[in-house]
Amino acid sequence: MKKSITxxxxxxxxxxxxxxxxxxxxxxxxxDITIFDDGKADLKAAAIYNVPFFxxxxxxxxxxxxxxxxxxxxxxxxxxxSTVVSINGEKGDFTTTDxxxxxxxxxxxxxxxxxxxxxxxxxxxxxxxHTLMPKPNKICLRCGExxxxxxxxxxxxxxxxxxxxxxxxxxxxxxxxxxxxxxxKGTLSVYHDTPSTRS
Length: 199
Ligand SMILES: Cc1cc2nc3c(=O)[nH]c(=O)nc-3n(C[C@H](O)[C@H](O)[C@H](O)COP(=O)(O)OP(=O)(O)OC[C@H]3O[C@@H](n4cnc5c(N)ncnc54)[C@H](O)[C@@H]3O)c2cc1C
Known about the structure:
Layout: E1 2-8, H1 12-24, E2 30-36, E3 47-48, E4 58-59, H2 60-72, E5 78-80, E6 84-90, E7 93-98, E8 103-106, E9 108-111, E10 127-129, E11 139-141, E12 148-150, E13 153-155, H3 166-185
Parallel strand pairs: 1-2, 1-9, 2-5, 9-13
Antiparallel strand pairs: 3-4, 6-7, 7-8, 10-11, 12-13
The structure holds flavin-adenine dinucleotide.
């Protein structure tokens, strides 16, 4: 079985979600992942000293390069450098469209667009103020259980309402990804490796 997932936002949250799916690929379940990103990440302003196992003072370019290399070793992901303007459809048949009119179909969508704005048609009714940001005019999406915005659409990272820390953004991305995996499998699911899983 192959499931397609579009990720909007390719910073730490979007890439963490993609890495989860890359690692969860196996003989029974494969993924077709597309990541849209328009290059305006908060992470680009940061130097990270407080995330375990990250090099001290890590910056966005090396973090992205490292995660993309890790993803590429397990799954081929399509990266599109553009701004998403709309989402249409429903679970199993979404179309995500960018400013050039390119439409990508998918079964699921992860919105990982950060806390600055979310001007995506189809999500406007879910935008609310972000209450855990120490800056004005920040937003997130109103989510239900397991960060589901609506059936088939999940929020990850700051747009899910978590505190603005890299580790929180990564954790929320894994939560959204596990929720999608559970939905695909029809039962509560996680993906765990052991030292012998891949040998
Ligand atoms: C100055 C500064 C210093 C910081 N220092 C630290 C620190 O020391 N430690 C720490 O843990 N955290 C730090 N942070 C916080 C950290 O950067 C954020 O918590 C983290 O980047 C959030 O990740 P994210 O993926 O949710 O959002 P972001 O990193 O903001 O990424 C969102 C991505 O979505 C893309 N996007 C948005 N809308 C669209 C669209 N419509 N179409 C396509 N792409 C879209 C954006 O271009 C962006 O690339 C700092 C933040 C700032 C601003």
